[in-house]
Write a structure and sequence with these properties.
Layout (H helix, E strand, L loop, with lengths): L1 H20 L3 E2 L4 E2 L4 E3 L5 E6 L8 E6 L7 E4 L11 E4 L5 E5 L2 E4 L11 E4 L5 E4 L5 E4 L7 E2 L4 E5 L4 E3 L1 E6 L2 E11 L7 E5 L2 E5 L15 H7 E7 L3 E8 L6 E5 L5 E7 L2 E8 L14 E3 L7 E3 L3 E3 L2 H5 L7 E3 L10 E9 L5 E4 L3 H9 L4 E7 L2 E6 L5 E3 L8 E7 L1 H39 L8 E14 L2 E14 L11 H7 L8 E5 L2 E4 L8
Length: 531
Amino acid sequence: MVSKTRFWYPFILLMFLCAGAAMDTIRPGNHLNSSTTVVSVGEMFELGFFQPTDSEHYYVGIWYKNIKEDPVVWIANRDYPVTASAFFGISDDGNLEIKQGRIIYRVTDMTLPNANVSAKLLDSGNLILRDENSSILWQSFDFPSHTYLPGMKLGYDTRIQSTWSYVSWKSSNDPSPGNFTLKLDSGPEKQIMILNGDAIYWRSIRSWGDSSNYFEFPVETRLNMYNFSFVSESDTAYLTYNIYRNDTISRFTIDATGQLRQLLWLDNEWSVLNSQPGQPCEVYAYCGANSSCSNVSSPICSCLPGYKPSSVEFWNNGDFKEGCSRKNELQCGKNDGFHMLTKVILPQKHLTREVQSFGDCRSSCLSNCSCSGFSYTDRNCSIWTGELINLQQLPVNNSSGTDFYLKLAATDLETKKSSSNMRRAVIVSVTVTMTVFTSAFCIWQVKVKRDKRKGETLDTFILFQVFVSDTSGTYSCFMLCRWQVEHEKEVEIPLFSFSSVSAATDNFSFSNKLGEGGFGPVYKVNFIDFV
């Protein structure tokens, strides 16, 4: 009796092995129902019917096998929910289909030479349909839902009329297509973008069309976890990635609120490494056209100098979408000029070309009647035409940001100059007074330590630093003042007026700008008149 039992062990083991070998594959004649599933060989992913919370509908999907909440990463029938009586399998002609009574929903629609095919779920989360030679006829990775997994593509291939884009759920409990789409821009900059319907909702600041090819997420994700690669040919462009360590589980999702989230399975829970857009100013055209957005200001939006709200009523009610329009039209000639905005994130959509100097870049914009502004860095001249979208004003203490030269009509420049001078006069008066009192202490020290030899002339030096702030930034003037005092004579504290400071820097002109430090631009002083 014992020997007979042992005799059957190999056959029982063989049956389990055969069953295990088929757990990841669907063959013709096999179907899944609402209570059966297919599991990838490494038990990473599972394929079957699922029912969202508080819903009567069923969908065919793929989800993580051994992770709580079983997050769904792919859905076969987003537009066509079914009931619990439906089946999923391979049809007589070799296509994947969902059958509910007499109603059939075809997941694939191909004409095949024969129906000798099988569907296999891989540990990558990819469901492939292959022929008897193991050639892939179709794969779910080419028809993404809302989750961007390692090995998937984000982009397009115009040769086969294929687009690898990702569409959000309608809500957290409704997997039908929602309002937001994650895609790769087909323009020259190849920016990653999120659409809200047909309108741009968010764009990546950096693009994959230049040398700075990286995703806008923390450094550690680019260097230690993710290996992104970008493929760009005449008709094809896509971004794909893989993960260095096999034991790391991560995904990107576009959710029902329009957030692109980077998720990592860590300590038995999903951790959000990053989310875009992260702040209101990162939402595309949040403040409308020709405006400035600042995440630290209240209100968050303001019209650019020389512009006014297009709709005062909407603007005052906190609706900034209408943006701003010019107070005075450009004259398209030498009467136009520029107002410098410092520490800004430059607007979107510009043309860049190489020039020899800042003056060449300025002249290029001045001679172009459509030019709205320019930026110059290391012989690279960037020109903006038409409306200015997504200009962000960074805080004064922010070390990043770029100078932007806003093109204005002469009348707006004069108005800006007068109001700016008034603000500077007030600030300089206060700051200079404080500086002089501080300097008095230095002079007293000189007096105490002076040479006791009577009649000897002493050279006294004091370094003045004057800060002048307005809406375009903070200016800093350094002045080394030298005068002579005779031994045992009282030292008079020098005073100077705003007009003398303005004259000494040629009204803080660009030609007198020496550079830029932590407090803002530094200007050269040609002379200084003391009061």
